[in-house]
Amino acid sequence: MATIRLGDEAPNFTANSTEGTINFHEWLGDSWGILFSHPADYTPVCTTELGTVAKYKDAFDKRNVKVVALSVDGLDSHNDWIKDINETQHTTVNFPIIADEDRKVSELYDMIHPNANDKLTVRSVFVIGADKKVKLIITYPASTGRNFDELLRVIDSLQLTAYHKVATPANWNNGEDVVISPSISNEEIPALFPKGHKEIKPYLRMTPQPNLN
Questions:
Q1: Catalytic (active site) residue 46
Q2: How far apart are CA 191 and CA 213, in angstroms?
Q3: Residues of 141-157 as b/e, b for ≥16 C-beta within 10 angstroms?
Q4: Eight-state DSSP code of residue 34
Q5: Which stretches of the chain are assigned E, i.e. beta strand?
Q6: Are 212 and 160 in contact (CB under 8 A)?
Q7: No. of H helices and E strands in the chain?
Q8: Which one from 46, 50, 72, 179 is the annotated catalytic residue?
Q9: Tally of CB atoms within 10 A around 207
Q10: Closest CA to 3 of 113, 97, 102, 101
Q11: Mean pLDDT of 84-93
Q12: How far apart are CA 114 and CA 98, in angstroms?
């Protein structure tokens, strides 16, 4: 099984989902994407997670991010479980859930970790850029629900740093100052960062977030 690393092209696949057949790369189009697996349908943590994702759809749309979930359960199970998600989480599931009964996608993305569970997927998260390259990989155990505010925060950082020569410091949130990349010389800073900058150390230079008015 190939290991997927940051910067690799996200493997393409075709799979059935609750919104029809998906060819992953074609479905993404020019959007960013989140592919995330959950261990099983009709499980409590997963129910809260998928309900949360549905409520965050506007936030993902604002960032040009498409979201797709996956488990090794079948379409009938997914469709019936969606009713429970909508009822208990007071929302409407508005993204596809892949039915990966043959584990083709799970194995392609190394989502089954035998020492945790040899049948069910762990809570894998892959953030994929518009260039189809893998930008982020996070793996949670089945017992720990994901923080989707953190995923939005990371996407803000990934999208900012993809187009500007900056990095984001610890606990950074959208709108806060950022770090100027070490590869940028002091002479280049005025042209690249007209809002100004503060030098804390020669290697630690801060500037206001460049993509905000």
A1: yes
A2: 16
A3: ebeebbebeebbbbbbb
A4: E
A5: 14-15, 22-23, 32-37, 65-71, 97-99, 123-128, 134-140, 166-167, 178-180, 198-201, 204-207
A6: no
A7: 7, 11
A8: 46
A9: 20
A10: 113
A11: 96
A12: 21
Cβ–Cβ under 8 Å, residues 142 and 117: yes
Six-digit token string for 154? 């990371």
State how far the Cα of 173 lies from the Cα of 211, in Å rounded to an integer.
13
C-beta of residue 95 within 8 angstroms of C-beta of residue 27: no
Closest to 189 (Cα-Cα) out of 40, 201, 181, 142: 181
Among candidates 37, 11, 22, which has minimal Cα distance to 119? 37
Residue at token pair 């993809």:
162
159, 165, 188, 213 from 59: Cα distances, Å = 14, 25, 34, 20
- Please tell me the pTM assigned to this model: 0.90
Q: How high is the pLDDT of residue 102?
A: 86
C-alpha dist (Å) from residue 30 to 17, 52, 150: 20, 24, 23
Distances (CA, A) of 68 to 17, 39, 93, 171, 211: 9, 14, 11, 26, 28
Maximum Cα–Cα distance across the chain: 61
How far is C-alpha 87 from the chain's CA centre?
25
Q: 166-208, pLDDT tens digit by residue? A: 999 999 999 999 999 999 999 999 999 999 999 999 999 999 9
CA distance 194 to 171: 24
